[in-house]
Design a protein that fits this description.
Blueprint: H1 2-53, H2 61-69, H3 78-81, E1 86-94, E2 101-103, E3 118-124, E4 127-128, E5 140-141, E6 145-150, E7 156-157, E8 162-163
Antiparallel strand pairs: 1-2, 1-3, 3-6, 4-5, 7-8
Helix pairs in contact: 1-2
Length: about 160
C-alpha cells in the first residue's frame, strides 16, 4: 500500500506541473490580455467623446492632457503616461461638394465660427507585457485602436458666442 500511495502523489505532482499549473497561468494571461484590450478600447472611446464635446485646439493638447490624466487602471498604465504609447487627435471637416473628410484648419482655436465636423482619436504602439515576460515570453503588441465621432458643438454656446474649455 505504501508504494501505491507514493505513486499517486507522483502522478498528481506530474499532472499538476505539466497540465493544471500551465493551464491556470494561461487562463490568467488571456484574461488579463482581454481586460487590457477592453480597457484600451474604452479609453480611446472616452478620449474621442471628450474631444467631440470640448473646445477644439489645433494641437489637441486639451484632449491629450485629459487622456493622460484619466488612463484606466490596467497593466502597462505607465506606457500611456511616460512610455512609447502614442495618443493622436485629428480633426476633420466634411467637404460640402464631395462629402469626403479633409483635415480641419481654422484661423483660431476654440470659437463658435471654428468648429470641426468630426474627430478621430487613436492609440498606437501599446505592447502588453505581464509577469510571463519574466519567463522569457515577449510582449504582445496590440493593434492600433481608433475611434471617430461627430463633433457635438465643441463646447461652444452659439447663443452667447463663447466656447468653454
Amino acid at each position: 500500500m505504501a508504494g501505491r500511495r507514493g505513486a499517486v502523489n507522483l502522478e498528481f505532482a506530474l499532472t499538476y506541473t505539466g497540465l493544471i499549473l500551465p493551464a491556470t497561468l494561461g487562463l490568467i494571461y488571456i484574461a488579463q490580455l482581454l481586460w487590457t484590450w477592453h480597457s484600451v478600447n474604452e479609453f480611446t472611446r472616452e478620449g474621442a467623446s471628450y474631444a467631440s464635446t470640448h473646445c477644439w485646439e489645433s494641437s489637441g493638447a486639451n484632449v491629450l492632457t485629459f487622456m493622460r490624466a484619466n488612463v484606466p487602471a490596467m497593466i502597462g498604465q505607465d506606457q500611456f503616461q511616460n512610455g512609447p504609447v502614442q495618443l493622436n487627435v485629428n480633426y476633420f471637416a466634411i467637404d460640402p461638394t464631395t462629402g469626403a473628410l479633409t483635415p480641419f484648419s481654422c484661423d483660431g482655436d476654440c470659437s463658435v465660427g471654428c468648429i470641426p465636423d468630426t474627430v478621430t482619436v487613436s492609440v498606437t504602439n501599446y505592447s502588453f507585457a505581464t509577469f510571463l515576460s519574466y519567463l522569457g515570453l515577449p510582449a504582445v503588441p496590440l493593434p492600433n485602436f481608433q475611434t471617430s465621432l461627430a463633433v457635438e458643438g465643441a463646447g461652444c454656446d452659439p447663443e452667447q458666442g463663447v466656447c468653454l474649455p
